[in-house]
Automatic annotation (TrEMBL):
One of its GO terms (biological process) is proteolysis. Gene3D superfamilies: Trypsin-like serine proteases (2.40.10.10). This is pancreatic elastase. Its main location: secreted. It comes from Hucho hucho (huchen). It is an enzyme of class 3 (hydrolase). One of its GO terms (molecular function) is serine-type endopeptidase activity.
Length: 238
């Protein structure tokens, strides 16, 4: 996350760290959202290579154990059939991970609320991006979970020629466009948007500009969760 600040520990209790195994160690690569006790939603581009994955719930400092973490292996990866790894702007950047064990819910680990199918945010809706990604373009990831104020940008604005143009589809949601942004390592994590006083996960962090993470009029682009509710329910029996 570029800009913003370090979050209060466990204040986004549905945020998870997705980690891959290399040698005998695991390394953070993406974020994700706990949507059921045994299911995590993330980005397809995070999991479209063959790796051994694990999910850490209830985490804050990646490199230290604070006693609230729950570590789960991933038993199955379900990538949307529309996803094409050669064309991230094509959309469908969404995947579900089946956890090997169900999470225990407590103050540090909670399920995210998802929006109703088809719901579109108005321009400038209050949202926060959260993640352990890089804190500047080409920089280092954050050891502590960060959050940044990232108001939504409506599709008409985001798809205009001086913004993202036709790269952005209606199945995506844009947020930011100023100093604050997502960056590498935030992918797959949530865009947490406030609607009627409650936070709902409206986006799955998908991509930023190739010119940099926080480029003016190139807001962070997310998979729009409300476009995929029926897909999520189809993969994951209610």
């Amino acid at each position: 996350v570029v800009g913003g600040e370090v979050a209060q520990p466990n204040s986004w209790p549905w945020q998870i760290s997705l980690q891959y195994k290399s040698g005998s160690s695991y390394y953070h690569t993406c974020g994700g959202t706990l949507i059921r006790r045994g299911w995590v939603m993330t980005a397809a581009h995070c999991v479209d290579s063959q790796m051994t994955w694990r999910v850490v719930l209830g985490d804050h400092h990646l490199n230290s154990n604070e006693g609230k973490e729950q570590i789960m292996t991933v038993s199955n990866v379900y990538i949307h059939s529309g996803w094409n790894s050669n064309n991230i702007a094509g959309g469908y950047d969404i995947a579900l991970l089946r956890l090997s064990t169900e999470a225990s819910l407590n103050s540090a680990v909670q399920l995210a609320a998802l929006p109703p199918s088809g719901q579109i945010l108005p321009n400038n809706n209050p949202c926060y991006i959260t993640g352990w990604g890089r804190t500047q373009t080409g920089g280092s990831p954050s050891n502590s979970l960060k959050q940044a104020w990232l108001p939504s940008v409506d599709h008409q604005t985001c798809s205009s020629s001086s913004w993202w143009g036709s790269t952005v589809k209606t199945s995506m949601v844009c947020a930011g466009g100023g100093f604050n942004s997502g960056c590498h390592g935030d992918s797959g994590g949530p865009l947490n948007c406030q609607v009627n006083g409650q936070y709902y996960v409206h986006g799955v962090t998908s991509f930023v500009s190739s010119s940099g993470c926080n480029v003016n009029r190139k807001p962070t682009v997310f998979t729009r969760v409300s476009a995929y509710i029926s897909w999520l329910n189809g993969v994951r029996p209610v």
